[in-house]
């Protein structure tokens, strides 16, 4: 995993867009992002570690998704662009990368990163938890392939609320997220 400030230079979203300004795990933590590395090994010890992590956090369900041009066919480019639309969810978004690689971009909320995109580059063995209410987007990288395990606290659902919608900022998950981040960094809500 590598995290850095997105360079905001127009171009293919699958390119690194690395500004050269690294972001620490501590900064990601202040945004409520949880990161772990769980190496995928031949003995499948990683499966046990995922089971323990899921139990600790109350994730009851899981599935697997593979995003490739071959798998999605003609809808691939359209689907990738839809994943890249800035949005939030009312539940945590949990991904464990089983193969391939890609990027999650999250919006900074305070200080020098307020409203800046922070790009998180993920590959095989990386696990990320995005908190409910965080604005984010996703894309594969230039390899055009990723396989991820998705974990859910309840029945699998994935409802994105686009930031461009008039009522998204007013969603309860968003205001709760803002309050939690401000409390974590010591800002009065």
Structural features, described:
It is a single chain. This protein has 189 residues and is of the alpha+beta class. It has one domain: Sandwich (Jelly Rolls). It contains 5 helices and 11 strands, in the order ββαβαβααβββββββα. The strands form 2 sheets. Strands 1, 2, 3, 4, 6, 7, 8, 9 and 10 form a 9-stranded antiparallel beta sheet that branches. Strands 5-11 form a two-stranded antiparallel ribbon. The radius of gyration is 16 Å and the shape is globular. The protein starts with a strand and ends with a helix. 24% of the residues are buried.
Task: Walk me through the topology.
Blueprint: E1 2-6, E2 18-22, H1 25-30, E3 34-37, H2 45-57, E4 61-67, H3 69-72, H4 76-83, E5 87-88, E6 93-107, E7 117-123, E8 126-130, E9 136-140, E10 146-152, E11 161-162, H5 172-185
Antiparallel strand pairs: 1-2, 1-7, 3-8, 4-10, 5-11, 6-7, 6-8, 6-9, 6-10
């Amino acid at each position: 995993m590598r995290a850095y400030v997105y360079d905001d230079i127009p171009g293919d979203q699958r390119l690194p867009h690395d500004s050269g300004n690294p972001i620490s795990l501590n900064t990601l933590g202040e945004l409520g992002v949880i990161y772990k590395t769980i190496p995928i090994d031949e003995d499948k010890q990683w499966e046990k570690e995922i089971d323990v992590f899921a139990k600790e956090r109350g994730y009851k369900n899981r599935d697997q998704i593979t995003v490739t041009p071959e798998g999605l066919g003609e809808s691939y480019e359209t689907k990738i662009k839809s994943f890249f639309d800035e949005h939030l969810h009312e539940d945590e978004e949990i991904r464990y990368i089983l193969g391939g690689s890609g990027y999650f971009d999250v919006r900074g909320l305070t200080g020098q990163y307020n409203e800046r995109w922070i790009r998180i580059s993920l590959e095989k063995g990386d696990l990320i938890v995005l908190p409910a209410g965080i604005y984010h987007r996703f894309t594969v990288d230039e390899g055009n392939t990723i396989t991820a395990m998705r974990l859910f606290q309840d029945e699998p659902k994935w409802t994105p609320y686009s930031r461009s919608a008039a009522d998204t900022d007013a969603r309860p998950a968003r205001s709760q997220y803002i309050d939690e981040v401000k409390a974590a960094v010591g800002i009065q809500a």
